[in-house]
Amino acid sequence: MLVFWSWIFLLLGVATCLIIAIDIRKRPQHMAVMNVTWPITGLYMPVIGWWAYVAMGRAPPANEQQAHHGQHHHGGGKPKWQGVFVSATHCGGGCTLGDVVAAPLASATGFALFGSEIAGHFVLAFIAAYAFGVLFQYLPIRAMSDSGPGEALRDAIKADTGSLVAFQLGMYLWMLIAAFGWMGGMLDAFTPRFWFMMQIAMLVGFATSYPANWLLVNRGIKHAM
Length: 225
Hints:
The chain is an all-alpha fold. 73% of the residues lie in helices and 0% in strands. The chain has helices spanning 2-26, 34-44, 48-57, 80-109, 117-144, 149-182, 192-218. It is globular. InterPro entries: DUF4396 (IPR025509).
């Protein structure tokens, strides 16, 4: 039964991702990295990701965007909770992409830390998620400011570290529960139930990163998007 529901939610996630990606081709985001972030959000937020995209991130059609120029800078007229929500998806996009890259590598190599393959999996996932997370911050900082490469990298690390750690901790907590509750004490990235559990883990990570993003926005370290 778990395998059945795994396939259902994974297929819904892929479908949501593709629908968002197709829509974005007609309505490109003002911030280019969000062209990638929103489809990734659909992967771990099946169906709900489409609602979030339409409600909080959908841009006007490309042929109308000149008339709306400037509307989407740093959240535009969104309520603060929505701006923080989109900032959290931005963090989640980098984390998710890193985890998707690292998980098969960890399973294929059997990489272990202190004799634990789960710990090895988490370490590789954190390294990859941190790299992509900082990149997702660095690119828009460079594109939207006069910061040099070094300054932009420092700002990206400052903006992303807290929210990324909060996201990954939530994700790890759920994957530990899942590993010992339903997956025989191991994480095998070549099974559908692993990725179904990862979908849930990403949602938990999103929830734990939201307060961190709110705090970072309040302190002016990040901008609501």
